[in-house]
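Illustration 12: Probable periplasmic serine endoprotease DegP-like.
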Amino acid sequence: MSLVTGNPAGAQVAQNDDSEIARVAPRPGAPGSFAELTAQLQPAVVNISTRQRIQVNTNPFAGTPFADLFGGGQPATREAQSLGSGFIISADGYVVTNNHVVTADGRGRVEEITVTTPDGTEYPAELVGTDAASDLAVLKISRREAFPFVHFGDSAEARVGDWVIAIGNPFGLGGTVTAGIVSAVVRSTGMGGAYDRYIQTDASINRGNSGGPLFDMEGNVIGINNAIFSPTGGSVGIGFAIPAEIAEPIVKKLIAGEEIQRGYLGVRIQQMTEDLAAALGIPENRGEFVQAVEPGEAADKAGLRAGDVVLQVDGKDVTRDQTLSFIVANIAPGTRVPLLVLRDGQRVTLNATVGRRPSEDQLQQQFFDPNAEQDQPMPQGNTGSGMLEQSLGVRAIPLTPQIARQLGLGESTRGVVVTDVDPNADAAQKGLQRGTVILSANGAAISSPQELENVIRTAKAAGRPAVLLRVQARGGPPLSIAVRLR
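Figure caption equivalent — predicted structure in token form:
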């Protein structure tokens, strides 16, 4: 790293000052062109196409109360195709891509997968293995001659600002090369999941780039292009790649035919927000909030409760970039680990024996009530002194057994039910609506509007700008939300 001489533009500080910022030139080898590197790498990057049979419902009233009036409709299948990218990692033809490129997303079956190399040769591909949680898949193609291939690199060595290039098949335009830099090395998209941790890049990535490689300047694969953030559906310079340090071990297991096991606690979680932190009186905006605990799973057995904030798992801080799901998924099932949680303002250590993570399909079915009842008329009522309208922007009445039955709740459920919400209030923005039941506020069970008012008065006296409400909507699970006071 050589110092720039003369008087370049940039930060100016006093000479011989320990705080001086060194001004550096680009390291030797910063590309004037990507042509030579591209020529070496492009032969190992392939296009992937599939032929699928997807089930569709021919009943125009499917999903409505009128569906059965028309005989329920007969399911039909239609042929569909998908396009994506991949790269060869061995001379004998193992190909890495995304799982979503080569699966029918649960709606049917993939009948044929074709891999096309840059010289236009098409190869029928065998599906070796897939992993939905990491969105990775491995294919196998064959020929007598050795295939050109590329290697995984060490994505942990990537730095923000490093040059990268992406090669792939956007919109079916095979062999497309784009360049950019590493925009972030550990990026969580907020979507949750076991592997919500990506390399972010501004190298142009579009539909069809999925499964293609993200290369460093030494020609190593440091990421697998996976997704974009875009209001238009096209590239706006925010692309995400699965880091090689995550992908490579999974790929090796898929090739070896090994089962992939991940850790699991059995909780429904929410990232800590400014409003949640304010409602809980937490000085640091860190950790993740437990919305619900699945009965009988590891968290339940360890004593974790809804309303806890998980701060650490096995000594590792839970942050936006190192989520609870990511930490736990990378712990072997059966391992006993300490959990540091914040409960009612106190730090508590629990010990959990990590369970085994279910399949992605099973996870999607959890906390889902298919028997949610339809809306029914709600009575109007007196909400006390008017503080709820002034401070929360809601009107509420006590929850009676009759109203509880209308809402599909047990008759013994206690709380207050919202009858009106000011659309301009934070409560409306957070999802409170007519028929929502407020079960507790700041950890205190409530059964009348007056009790809710008392909690609000206490919060205001303590200088808290928000309250934490435990609520339940019709047909849904209990959730905790932080609502700002007015």
